[in-house]
Amino acid sequence: MSWLSNAFDRLRFRARPPVDDRSRMRAVANNLILHLHPTRVPAPALRFTHTWGLGGISALLTVILVITGVLLMFRYDASVERAYASIQTLETVVPFGALLRNVHHWSANLLVITVLLHLVRVFLTGGFFRDRRGNWIFGLFLLLIVLAFNFTGYLLPWDQLAFWAITVGTGLLDYVPVVGVLVANFLLGGREVGQAALRNFYALHVAVLPVVLMLALSYHFWRVRKDGGVALPDQTGPIEKLTTIPHLVGIELGIALVTLTAVMLFAMLVPAPLEAMANPAHPPNPAKAAWYFLGVQELLLHMHPLAALTLSAIGLLGLAAVPFWDRDDSAIGIGGRSARGRKAAWLGVALSLLLTPLLVVIDEWWLDLPALLPGLPTLVSNGLIPLGLTLAGLAGIYWLIRLALRTRHNEALVGLFSFTMNALVVLTLIGIFFRGPNMALVWPW
Amino acid sequence: MTPPPVPSAPETTMSRRNFLSLGLGALGLVGLLQTGVMTVQFLGPRRVDGEFGGVVQAGLVESFPPGSVTEFPDGRFFLVRLADGGFLAVYRRCTHLGCAVSWQAAENRFACPCHGSYFDQEGDVENPPAPRALDTFAITITDGTVIVDTAEPRQRDAFDATQVVYPAGA
């Protein structure tokens, strides 16, 4: 049995933490996973409230999703006759099947939140200046991948929720001029959600998107290292550097444990929803898209679908244009660009908390543009005009913040960004909680 | 005696090497295009014969009384017989975001539960957000039998009389 004790000794020896800084740095450089990190990190980059660990949490959730997802694949059938039954079996028969599905479901939902917060954090601390410009835009691409993952995964349980959310979601595509119907038919493998759509979405969800994500994520991480890690304010003097072991790794393990515990607890307490089996003849009332698309669906209730899509596209392009829009890179690494910028951010949040619900209610109950302008086609009266008004309103917010607080351009942009992001949150909350049968406004209680 | 001048080769800027590499590149491009088209075709929409997307034998003209609406769940359409005896095959898919409309006989209308659109018996919009009338399918009436082709829904902004098919002799 000497080989066994030898093996144990080797494990123990390798697990023994390195004792001095030099060997700690070597341990990082020689480890496949730790090698993602530099051997030493600037002390200010380790401050938790500078990053909130959001990128790391997102990466951890991705790992959880891959592991639970692969396990789920062993018990899932991508056919309209058996998909729902296989989920039911998972929920009731398979040991810990329900927990596994809950962890996958809630991690996926949490990932949408953490990557969005990650985006907000990187914007606010100026993580897109100079060399980081490319990775900022690439990060937006990653956001789209995460949304595509969630969208394709949403259909797989084949219950009423899944079926009609995907029907409504792909129904949106029909309004994209020229290519919309073609793309929708191609995605669904036909004109309606059916067997072909289920198989397409499954293949995308478990094969195509994971490969794309793996490559894209590797590039994202590599760029983070190349661009010098977390964006920090320009230093005049020498900057204190700490070894990655134990300073960074310790924080990371702590955050990872908290995240894991939180996800596990949540998954144990709150079951992932599963409604009745999909019935293509009877949509539920109301039929809502997945919650992260409800902000866009809320826009649809107020303007022509083409206008709502255009507005969303402008928002995304605006985010991609941020590095070209704000070129004052002296504010790099400073939260909100400056104290006044932080004030502008809060003003933006307050304005959108006030204005967004107000506009929703006004448009819902009093303002009926197509009836006011009967001579115009609805594409103009309900599309072009609301779109123009919204964009003009956003420009108005920018100038209001700029003049009221006497801010510079980059600080007013922070205000505009906060306004838009918070408006998206408010619209999403209205879509989730305040829309009842026939999508009428209701109180949630 | 001077040798006769060699007929000079026609002036060209392309060397043999350039020509070959250009040709190779062009062939590669064609190959890529071919595989691209093959992939798109491979992944493209699939039709199942005999189900939705095929031709549906709805039944004899006499079995649909004027003013009636009959649902064909497999064909995804409602066969409407108007009061004047004409036929209209109305696609079930709401023109707003694609939910399935249902026929409410008491109110004499199609209703979409998802976002509250209503349509009258001819499929015209009674209540938005639906932007246009329900789509229709082509109808032929042969030997007194109503046949509906569900291959391609026909879009229309509103109902007009040319969309109605009348049985022969009616």
Give your account of this protein's structure:
The complex is a heterodimer of chains A (445) and B (170). Chain A has 445 residues and is mainly α. Chain A folds into two domains: 42-280, Cytochrome Bc1 Complex, Chain C, CATH 1.20.810; 285-445, no CATH class. In chain A, 67% of the residues lie in helices and 1% in strands. Chain A has 17 helices and two strands. Chain A has helices at 2-15, 21-29, 48-51, 54-73, 83-92, 97-124, 133-155, 160-173, 180-188, 195-226, 244-269, 294-300, 305-325, 339-365, 369-372, 378-404, 409-433; strands spanning 40-42, 241-243. Chain B folds into two domains: 14-44; 55-163, Rieske Iron-sulfur Protein. With 170 residues, chain B is an alpha+beta fold. Helix content of chain B is 16%, strand content 28%. Chain B is built from one helix and ten strands. In chain B, a hairpin with a 6-residue loop joins strand 6 (109-111) and strand 7 (118-119). In chain B, the strands form two sheets. A six-stranded antiparallel beta sheet of chain B has the order 1-10-9-4-3-2, with no helix packed on it. Chain A binds chain B through residues 164, 167-168, 170-172, 174, 185-186, 188-192, 196, 200, 280-287, 300-301, 304-305, 370, 378, 437-440, and chain B through 40, 43-47, 52-53, 73, 76, 92-93, 96-100, 102, 112-116, 128-129, 131, 153.
